[in-house]
Amino acid sequence: MTIALRLPRDAASVSVTRQILGAELEVLGVETQIKEDIQLMLTEACSNVIRHASETDEYTVSAQLIEDRFVITVVDTGSGFDPEKLDAEKTETPSPMAEHGRGLQIMRALADDVRFMNRPLQGAIVCLEKALRFTRDSPGELLTAH
């Protein structure tokens, strides 16, 4: 099961995307805490596109249910980034009171797997994975049981 969205690089698109994927997770019967973690990871990934991918007019978000895992891929068409710089930033912890700079830290804390890929002069890809837990007898539980 896959959902793909092409979105304008606009702050309002973050909320819309969060609501669409949140509704999908709700229908599947994903446990509340897992759903909220996914929505926060998604918000951070999309917000980074809005803040940093200045050369792009749009970006795409795809979400896949693969067995009991939810995989989100956010792709922009900006100038890309330096993955080595991201790895160096892992060791630097932003202040808890900082207004910016905690997005990568939040994504890494909530996701089971986070991958950043650079496509110089073509943009960036962020891939987030999270194991799902479903409420009893929910559609998601029934779909993943096969």
UniProtKB/TrEMBL annotation:
One of its GO terms (molecular function) is ATP binding. Pfam families: HATPase_c_2 (PF13581). The keyword Acyltransferase does not apply. InterPro entries: Anti-sigma-factor_SerPK (IPR050267), HATPase_C_sf (IPR036890), HATPase_dom (IPR003594). Residues 8-128 form the Histidine kinase/HSP90-like ATPase domain. Keywords: ATP-binding, Kinase, Nucleotide-binding, Serine/threonine-protein kinase, Transferase. Gene3D superfamilies: Histidine kinase-like ATPase, C-terminal domain. It comes from the Bacteria. PANTHER family: ANTI-SIGMA-F FACTOR RSBW, ANTI-SIGMA-F FACTOR RSBW-RELATED. This is ATP-binding protein. It comes from Sphaerisporangium corydalis. The lineage of its organism: Bacteria, Bacillati, Actinomycetota, Actinomycetes, Streptosporangiales.
